[in-house]
Amino acid sequence: MLAFSAGIIFLSCGFAFTLPKGAVVNGVEVGGITRPQAVKLLTEQTVNTLKNKHLIVIADGGQYTFSYPEISFKADFDGALKDIKKGGNYTVEIYVYLCGLDEIAAGICLDEDLPVIEPSAKFSPFGEPFSYDGGRDGKLVDSNRLKSDIINSLNGDFSPVRVCYLNANRKTTLDEVRADTVKLSSFTTYFDGDNIARKSNIRLAAAKLNGAILGGGETLSFNALVGERSEERGFLPAKIIENGEFVEGIGGGVCQVSTTLYNAALLSGLSISEYHPHSLSVGYVPPSRDAMVSGSACDLKIKNTGDKPIYLRAQTDDNSVTVTFFGRSDGATYSLESSIIENLPFEEEEVDDPSKARVGKEGIKSECYLICERDGFISRTKIRGDCYRPIAERRFKAPDTAILPDNSN
To answer: Which long-range contacts (CB under 8 A, 24 or more apart) does 190-194 make?
Structure first.
């Protein structure tokens, strides 16, 4: 009796978990087998079907091919089998997808995108100041459409997917780039080409400025660019102004470079945030147009108040130094006007050493005005006033010589 009961229970369980006879799902006969068996059978059939299919993505740069297991699927076979009835013919929706679709689409974009190259200018410290590249328009893969077309192909007839592109156009023109690199001003001062030490210092300082680029809103520091004036860095002893006297000092002549830079900056419409006059007037610029630099205490600082870069060239020849600025013009033309307000008399001194004798030089009180012409209107603005010391004249006076009496008689 116990064995008979166990057999009945076994048969009852077996019949309870088999699917009705004649049931067909997605073209597969599943009647008479259990649901897990049916799920496995339907899964295997779907996998075998996918193994014989390929997805091809065609792009301008080549094609990409994907197959199982990169191509996978989702289907609720188990849920659908719960409601199967005898002799029924059922279809379970299968969703086919490409594994890592977002990453694959991003990789295709990386391979196939042709980025826009905007027109550009390359600045050179030597030769022609600028070389120009007209750039190019680009094209970008329509990533959203690519993913949509892949999904539709996988859940359709696996037809090849052709990559579609979006136009990407340049935002600027070469003419606009050229307008950002026009010559704003150029200023030249002259020196004695036979003074080798002074000429060497001027050349060295100018070389350290040459090629500098001042971005929008940035400030140029002369001392930061040129650096310490020392023999270790190649600067030589030459005449400098110190305490109202011309004396030998390391780096003599560097102030002529800073002065040349200062004048070129003013003529370019740039803002001067720090400058210092010499204590004595200099011969290479009119009064109130000099810019002395010394150590770290006295600097020349120039600010680019615009939003476009400013390019700087500082060049020398045998007896001159020239500073030129390039950038976008603000539409104005600038000039400088220097005027002497008063001459200051020099004192006279007597010296007993002929080597210390010198010619005196009057001091000067002076002003400088910036003249700006824009759209037919002219403005004249005082930008500074200075007082340069006189140089005392030193006259040699021979010492008195005693006349001895003639005692020969």
So the answer is: 190/284, 190/319, 190/320, 191/253, 191/256, 191/284, 191/319, 191/320, 191/321, 192/319, 193/318, 193/319
